[in-house]
């Protein structure tokens, strides 16, 4: 979802049931090794 939309991180966190976007970013970084924003930028660069 991060790679396919420009929706704000807070809205994406809410979609997956996490009320706190900061907590979502922390969990995302622990699992993916980068922040949601870094992931989005990387995904956009690699799909061009």
From TrEMBL:
<feature type="domain" description="HTH araC/xylS-type">
    <location>
        <begin position="1"/>
        <end position="42"/>
    </location>
</feature>
<dbReference type="GO" id="GO:0003700">
    <property type="term" value="F:DNA-binding transcription factor activity"/>
</dbReference>
<dbReference type="InterPro" id="IPR018060">
    <property type="entry name" value="HTH_AraC"/>
</dbReference>
<protein>
    <recommendedName>
        <fullName>HTH araC/xylS-type domain-containing protein</fullName>
    </recommendedName>
</protein>
<dbReference type="InterPro" id="IPR009057">
    <property type="entry name" value="Homeodomain-like_sf"/>
</dbReference>
<keyword id="KW-0805">Transcription regulation</keyword>
<dbReference type="GO" id="GO:0043565">
    <property type="term" value="F:sequence-specific DNA binding"/>
</dbReference>
<keyword id="KW-0238">DNA-binding</keyword>
<dbReference type="InterPro" id="IPR020449">
    <property type="entry name" value="Tscrpt_reg_AraC-type_HTH"/>
</dbReference>
<keyword id="KW-0804">Transcription</keyword>
<dbReference type="Pfam" id="PF00165">
    <property type="entry name" value="HTH_AraC"/>
</dbReference>
């Amino acid at each position: 979802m991060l790679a396919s939309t420009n929706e704000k991180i807070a809205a994406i966190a809410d979609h997956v049931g996490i009320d706190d976007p900061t907590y979502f970013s922390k969990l995302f970084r622990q699992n993916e090794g980068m922040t949601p924003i870094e992931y989005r930028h990387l995904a956009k660069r690699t799909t061009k």
